[in-house]
Amino acid sequence: MEPCAVLLWGWLLLGCSWGPGPSGVGAAALSAATYELDDAYGLGRQFDGIGAVSGGGATSRLLVNYQEPYRSQILDYLFKPNFGASLHILKVEIGGDGQSTDGTEPSHMHYENDENYFRGYEWWLMKEAKKRNPKIKLIGLPWTFPAWIGKGENWPYDYPDVTAYYIVSWILGAKHYHDLDIDYVGIWNERAFNSKYIKLLRYTLDKHGLQQVRIIASDRLWEPISFVLLLDSELHGVVDAIGAHYPGTKTVPNALLTKKKLWSSEDYSTFNDEVGAGCWARILNQNYVNGNMTSTIAWNLVASYYEELPFGRCGLMTAQEPWSGHYKVEAPIWITAHTTQFTQPGWSYLQVDGHLEGGGSFVALTDGLGNLTIIIETMTYNHSQCIRPPLPHFTVTPQRATFYLKGSFYMVKTLQVWHSRLDFESGSSNLFQQLHPVKVWKGSFSLDLNVDEVYTLTTLKTGQKCGYPEPPPPQPFPSNYKDDFNIRNPPFSEAPNFADQTGVFEYFINASDPGDHVFTLRQVVVQRPITWASDADQTISLIGNFKWVNMTVTCDIYIEKQRDGGVFVAGRVDNGGIYVRRTKGVFFWVFSDGTYRVTGDLAGEEILMKGLSGVRDNAWHTLTLNIQGTSASGLLNGYPLWENVTISQPSNGWAAIGTRSFEFAQFDNFHVEAS
pLDDT tens across 207-216, in order? Predict the structure, then answer.
């Protein structure tokens, strides 16, 4: 038996003045309008699906560490058909070792002579999505690239053949090692495109038998890509869809003139409360109604990163506590279901205007086999603002809508009804409830629409609101946490809960070590990547609870770089993601020249203490950083090295490890005790 909700018989009183209109308002006071749904004169654009992004960056970082059954439950809510969000599309970052919003994701080729198709978690996530829905479409898009692609320049197009080879390797690796067929590939997220590179990418794909992989460009704005496609017929021939980001439900004339598929290939990015759900409901409809967009893809899939990083909780659901098992199925999941459970890529939109007279919108889709799905939203201005772009003011009022079904839909006798009402007063929203079916009388039916509602009316009887028992209650990150990295065959390349913000920290087997340090964590990015954000000049990985104040951080460290190598342990670390360069905290550094420093920032500019330590490279040492109140002290190999350093800011933050530059270094026996 599927864990799905029983049918809830609600009141959907059609044509009754005392129906679910606003209290105390008779039907006569409602604005009334009629809308025709007819396929006799052909259909609108083909629907390409609703999806979400994992990555751009490290947004699914904490998801992989969840214990079963919770991890599988989260995946079911996202991907299982007729269960929850039932997504049609999964878009993932092609990791490039650089900071891409909330962390770095590892590349399959850190160095030119290196290939490894088991790093990170996007391979695993794509397989889990496919396991639940074999028809899900997969998209890959790079945000950053390893340094060797640019041969010293912060630019991926000087050697377009190298970049094309690198991207195609990722697609071939997906197939060869994971049996994953990538459906679409992008160019460079929110950065410049290069026509020569796009053509070469198509050529390289075809040469490797990947004709079925389609190209989407340019994951930025509608222009200049649309204009260039109209000018360059060869480019027009190789780009299959124009992907714009945060289009505000609008497109541009040139984009329409290209006759290409138009997608909102990244959208939403909004805190996942009721307003976020309102944003999502509005753009899912209006991206087509106003902008002819046939796919909308949310950033991000699931908020599985420390909430105090940039854009905390901007996922369709929240799963940021693998240590407790707690997760939350947020309202945007059920808003998604209103469209995804009753449509499929390959269906077609009907040719309708789609604007409701009292404000709000509707879309209608058909599979061409007699099925019809209508999705209506009446989101109000204050309750549906997305993070970007700014939303022009509009008003929505309660209204009566009468629909006339014509053409092949004239024979429809009943429609199943699913309803959500977002409640901004009491917070007790009704989400994705099945109501009494609507009887269609002589090809027509009427609906009394209130504000901030979503209705799906459909001939399909397959919709389900499914669920699992409540997950465990939330718990803070363990205040006493150890990791010795002693794992022979790790399921993932990265240690649990460490969130890399510059550089990449991976499990490493130290074959030459005689004993204590065979299994370690190693920083492996040794050249600054082709960046997307402002990566730091140092590498850093965060862990723990941002609210920690007092803490003792201990870690064994091994500097591999001679002369000017260096590593640190840190506490009260206050920043990460795209803001990593301005990170403050208490940083205890040791260098291969035998000196140490204590600084108040990652950049190492605010020096609080310095001196000689006797540390050397290619030897193991133990660093201990103790922060209590306004005072910090440090131990080396268990003996005091410095003490009574006064700390004013920041007052709280994560623990962290890292290196002075892009250099190899190893870490072992990490331990933090905090309060």
Answer: 999 999 999 9
